């Protein structure tokens, strides 16, 4: 006769394909009971009610249990996790992912901000470039990784046709330094049909892996990643390779855009990537006479941020200078810092810096105190410090 313990054991073989861990380890099996007649009743708590993996998890669960001796039937009762259970699952999985993560060339103290959206054309690349510039203007070391492997636009927006080269000794790729920002993009690599073909043969997630494992990024305070549209390979690869990554979701004020943006955020949560906040782009247009037009409707950003329980970081107006900046290779934040859209980008960057303060800064008071302690112990207090005592 099968015991409930044996059922838990069997369910350790049901791996959530997105999260890469068993539903038992993820805490998704909420109850197991077996009746006298051999009917197993199993409670499964899904991360979200409309979990895309629901059918798969139910099917696998039933299949594994049916294979156990003495089981005559299986009843699966699904429920959705509470936000607290979900948070627990996420922090546990993040911790394990961090422990097992492959060593990337991204310093562990680097804050990673992935700029995502449900669909293309909402301004991810524009937001990424302007955020990177605005963060660098705060004096931070900033990297900009173009993870839109085929749809790259960062080189054009940053105004560079530099070519990435590898260091002869270390074999690591050196990022191009453009306007004070370390930039890596497939657009800075592909130069001939041949190399293009070589890259096309690679899986997209492999390309990202190369950019994180084989680029000499040095110590960065922030790495901004321009993500390809939608959910998929790259997003999963990113959460696997860089468990510290967090997501900023870009949306337009349109309700339709906001709906697809919710899917990206759901996917982020399922791969344990916290969402830092929402940026509403193409918010409104103010004409030369001062009239404001809501060309793409209104309220999408606020509604999305409410739905995700995260802050609305900024509303960036529609402005021809943004296009000119992108096409001319000088992000508007750098080219025209007092332009309203530039101000909105600066506001978004400041909000992100506040929510994700540089890790170095957080730890430095502690380190200073420790240093003082050590110096005091050796009686070797430097005069400038001793004077303050
Ligand atoms: N706030 C804005 N005002 C005016 N044009 C914008 C704004 N944001 C983006 N654009 C323009 O919209 C187009 C798409 O932006 P892009 O950043 O390439 O989107 P994505 O990376 O999401 O596909 C570009 O031509 C860009 O210059
Ligand atoms: Mg883009």
Descriptive report:
With 389 residues, the protein is α/β, with parallel strands linked by helices. It is globular and about 75 Å long. 42% of the residues lie in helices and 18% in strands. α4 packs across α13 and α9 runs parallel beside α10. It has 2 domains: 80 residues, Fe-S cluster assembly (FSCA) (GMP Synthetase, Chain A, domain 3); 266 residues, Rossmann fold. It contains 15 helices and 15 strands. The strands form 4 sheets. Strands 8-9-5-10-4-11-12-15 form an 8-stranded mixed β-sheet, with helices on both faces. The structure holds adenosine-5'-diphosphate and magnesium ion. The site of adenosine-5'-diphosphate (ADP) has 18 residues, from α4 and α11.
What is the H level of CATH, i.e. the homologous superfamily of the largest domain?
Answer: P-loop containing nucleotide triphosphate hydrolases
- Per the CATH scheme, the topology name of the largest domain is Rossmann fold
Strand residue content:
15-25%
Helix content: 40-55%
Counting DSSP E segments of at least 2 residues, the number of strands comes to 15
CATH class division of the largest domain: Alpha Beta
Query: How many helix segments?
Result: 15
Small-molecule binders here are: adenosine-5'-diphosphate, magnesium ion
Order of helices and strands: HEEHEHEHEHEEEEHHEHEHEEEHEHHHHH
Would you identify the CATH architecture of the largest domain?
3-Layer(aba) Sandwich
């Amino acid at each position: 006769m099968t015991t409930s313990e044996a059922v838990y054991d069997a369910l350790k073989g049901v791996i959530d394909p997105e999260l890469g861990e068993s539903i038992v380890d993820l805490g998704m099996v909420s109850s197991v009971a077996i009746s006298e007649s051999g009917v197993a009743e199993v409670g499964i708590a899904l991360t979200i009610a409309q979990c895309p993996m629901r059918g798969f998890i139910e099917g696998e669960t039933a299949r594994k249990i049916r294979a156990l001796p003495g089981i005559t039937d299986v009843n699966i009762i699904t429920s959705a996790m509470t936000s607290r259970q979900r948070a627990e699952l996420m922090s546990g999985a993040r911790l394990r992912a961090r422990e097992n993560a492959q060593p990337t060339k991204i310093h562990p103290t680097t804050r990673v901000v992935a700029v995502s959206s449900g669909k293309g054309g909402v301004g991810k690349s524009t937001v990424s470039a302007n955020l990177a510039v605005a963060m660098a203007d705060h004096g931070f070391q900033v990297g900009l990784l173009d993870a839109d492997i085929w749809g790259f636009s960062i080189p054009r927006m940053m105004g560079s046709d530099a070519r990435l080269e590898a260091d002869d000794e270390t074999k690591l790729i050196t990022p191009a330094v453009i306007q004070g920002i370390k930039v890596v993009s497939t657009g800075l690599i592909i130069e001939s049909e041949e190399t293009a073909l070589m890259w096309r043969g690679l899986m997209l997630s492999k390309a990202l892996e190369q950019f994180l494992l084989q680029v000499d990024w040095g110590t960065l305070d922030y790495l901004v990643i321009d993500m390809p549209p939608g959910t998929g390979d790259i997003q999963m690869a990113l959460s696997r390779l860089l468990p510290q990554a967090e997501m900023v979701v870009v949306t337009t004020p349109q309700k339709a855009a906001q709906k697809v943006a919710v899917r990206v955020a759901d996917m982020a949560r399922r791969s344990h990537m916290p969402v830092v906040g929402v940026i509403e782009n193409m918010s409104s247009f103010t004409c030369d006479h001062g009239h404001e037009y809501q060309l793409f409707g209104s309220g999408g950003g606020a509604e999305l941020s409410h739905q995700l329980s995260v802050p609305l970081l900024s509303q960036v107006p529609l402005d021809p200078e943004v296009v000119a900046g992108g096409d001319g290779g000088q992000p508007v934040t750098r080219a025209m810092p007092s332009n309203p859209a530039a101000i909105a980008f600066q506001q978004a960057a400041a909000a992100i810096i506040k929510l994700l303060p540089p890790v170095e800064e957080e730890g430095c008071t502690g380190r200073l105190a420790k240093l003082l302690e050590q110096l005091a112990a050796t009686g070797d207090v430097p005069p400038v410090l001793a004077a303050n005592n």
